[in-house]
Automatic annotation (TrEMBL):
Membrane topology per record: Multi-pass membrane protein
Membrane-spanning intervals of the chain: 30-52, 138-158, 170-193, 199-220, 227-250, 256-274, 346-363, 375-396, 403-422
Protein name: Solute carrier family 22 member 21-like isoform X3
Gene3D superfamilies: MFS general substrate transporter like domains
Pfam families linked to this entry: Sugar_tr
Biological source species: Limulus polyphemus (Atlantic horseshoe crab)
Amino acid sequence: MKTDENYMRQEDTKELFDVIGYFGSWQRRIFFIAFISLMAHCWHVLAMLFLAPNIDHWCQRPTTYSNISTDQWKDLAIPRVQSKNDSGIYSSCLVYKNFTSHMKEENSTTACASWEYDNSFYTSTIIDEWDLVCENDWLPSMSTSLYMGGFMTSVFISGQLSDRYGRRPIILFGGIIFLASGFACAFSTSFLMFNILRFLVAFGASGTVLTIIILLLEVIGPEYRSILGICYQFGWALGYTILPGVAFLVKKWRHFQLIISVPWILLCSIWWFLPESPRWLLSHGKVKLAEKEIRNAARVNGKIVSNWQVIMAQLMTKEKQEEEMKRNRQATFLDLFKTPNMRKKSLNNFLFWFVNAFTYYGLSLHTNDMGGNPLINFFIAGTLEFPANIIGFILIKHVGRRISLMALMVVGGVACLLTVPVSDSYVSLALKANSY
């Protein structure tokens, strides 16, 4: 009789993982794809900081004054206004009506009809292309909200579709939508077109990323889910730290948009190597396809299996029993609020997600507004993701989820409060402590 631990007898079969292994080479391939997809998704979520950065702008000079320098034009025609630190700066939105007058203190001002931009660092942005300044300076923030709207819309739709048609087709479907919209976005001819395509980018990306997460959790053993759920986040952190480097090298927004869409070509290409979820196949009665995937997983992971027919029958019976239990329960979203205990837990989770998302993206999407170099601020914010994930994993493993969650949220809240009296030159470091 064989004594190899990889040898599997039919009487040993209790779970799918008893056959394919809990986390082997086959699962690592899926994890790698999930890792890359989250990194690529991060680039587009945070891209607006470099598509629409804070760039200096002022009222455009008439052609008759084109022969004078920018400093001379500002001194001649642009009024000074108070800045946040009480210093006088040139207005970005006003110009003297009669700037040839020597009595500027008595001269009235008017709003700019057009603008000039400081393109010394960024060669082109959506800000200067569509004049998203002054009374239109809220539009970039609205564009980010629309992106998140695409993400939220996809969450409701992609989950239902992946349960009905399988994980693999929805991953490809989302990837194609993303790839087409991401590249088309670089050729937008209007801000409206830009926003529609960004919405579709978010729709496709979130559908792909969330479905890959579901697939990953379905094929790894329970004891690996906590650690891989955190290790998976390192893909986001890696994308976060690389993005400012891309922005430093690529200073035209259209080229930048094309570059950050390239990884999705790789993701769509390696889709052919992505397996379907054996659990989904078994629950939908696709026994032959399920056996093919399970056999391949067992082979790649070095598992020796005997009597496939009996084992597949056992797995099929178990999956049918679980599926029947789910159907009998007919769980809906409202079940989260039926009992006091579940209602309390659900509302707490909703509150935690709202607070964390509100704070995290509020900080991450506004590093341009902090003191110092915005690229360095962004890079520091990204690098802090790595120790944050490591500390989170250690605390969850040794302290537990409940105390860790409470402690880290208190630390984040206190860090935010402590930034109030801190100088702008240090505020980015203190704020990003909230990532923990």
